[in-house]
Every structure is written in structure tokens, then in C-alpha cells.
Design goal:
The structure is a single chain. The protein has 155 residues and is α/β, with parallel strands linked by helices. It contains 4 helices and 9 strands, in the order E-H-E-H-E-H-H-E-E-E-E-E-E. The strands form 3 sheets. It has a 5-stranded parallel beta sheet with strand order 2-1-3-6-7, with helices on both faces. Strand 8 and strand 9 (152-153) form a beta hairpin. The longest helix is centred in the first third of the chain and has 17 residues, at 29-45. The chain is globular.
């Protein structure tokens, strides 16, 4: 099989409310994550990665064929898991469409690694997460001082 040529390296899938700034003058968590990821990948790869996220689509927008066709052009997907993300029909559809596209463009699993990365911003029970992502361990972006304490999200 010849290697696939992708137009984008990374797609960040997230619920828009999770990019709302907590204070005026600050940037949202997703915006900061995107920038940090871009810088770190540039350092590791020696070139700027091609990262895409939709910054304007809303819940009442339609998934057009043009948007759906983007999933075929992506190497990997990062899903930023939060309570709102798992309840979002749009976010769940993004995971499903990327999964289907990945099966046709080199496979979902490559060298025993998933092309879907699960970034857990806020704790969410496993059974609430999209079924496609339940088998992934994920990367926690929070900590707890004690098992029963509130989570502290990483900045």
C-alpha cells in the first residue's frame, strides 16, 4: 500500500464552550492548547504542523459534504473530552466521520497506535464517552489532590 498524502496533520475536535475565556483579556483553553501543540510539534518535527479546527461552526450549522470531505484529508484527530463534548451531537459526529475516513486512509490503528487521540480536559465517565473512544487510554490534562477532590485542569 502506498503512503497516503494528507492535507492536514492534526484536527482538533472540541466543544466551543470549552474555548470560552474564564476572564476578560484571556484566551480560551482550546486556543492555548492549539498554540502549545503547534509550537511543540514544530520543535519536534523541524517544521510547522498543519493543524485545523473549526473556530466558527455552531450547533445549528449543517455538516455539508465539503466539511465531511475534510476528514479524508487528516492524519490524526485530537478529541478534547469534556462533559459538553460527550453530549454534543456535532462532536460525536466528528469522531464517527473521522473514524470512518481513517479506516479508508491507512487505518484507524497504525503500528499499534490510534490515529484518534483522547485529551481529557475534564473528567468524564467512560460510559459517557463516544463508543469509538472508550478503548483509548487518553491523556489527562487535569489532576486531583485526592481521589475525592475536585479536578484541577492544566493550563
Amino acid at each position: 500500500m502506498k503512503p497516503m498524502l494528507f492535507e492536514k496533520d492534526v484536527f482538533i475536535s472540541y466543544a466551543h464552550i470549552d474555548d470560552e475565556a474564564l476572564s476578560e483579556g484571556l484566551k480560551g483553553w482550546i486556543t492555548e492548547f492549539h498554540k502549545a501543540l503547534e509550537v511543540r510539534l514544530s520543535q519536534l518535527l523541524g517544521e510547522e504542523p498543519r493543524i485545523w479546527r473549526d473556530s466558527k461552526l455552531q450547533g445549528n450549522d449543517f455538516f455539508t459534504p465539503e466539511i465531511e470531505s475534510q476528514f479524508q484529508k487528516l492524519k490524526i484527530m485530537i478529541s478534547v473530552v469534556t462533559p459538553r463534548y460527550v453530549r454534543s451531537e456535532w462532536c460525536n459526529k466528528e469522531v464517527t466521520l473521522f473514524y470512518k475516513a481513517a479506516k479508508d486512509t491507512g487505518g484507524v490503528i497504525v503500528e499499534n497506535k490510534s490515529r484518534i487521540f483522547k485529551v481529557i480536559k475534564t473528567p468524564v465517565e467512560l460510559e459517557e464517552q463516544p463508543e469509538i473512544m472508550r478503548g483509548l487510554l487518553g491523556y489527562k490534562f487535569f489532576k486531583r489532590e485526592r481521589e475525592d477532590s475536585a479536578p484541577i485542569e492544566f493550563g
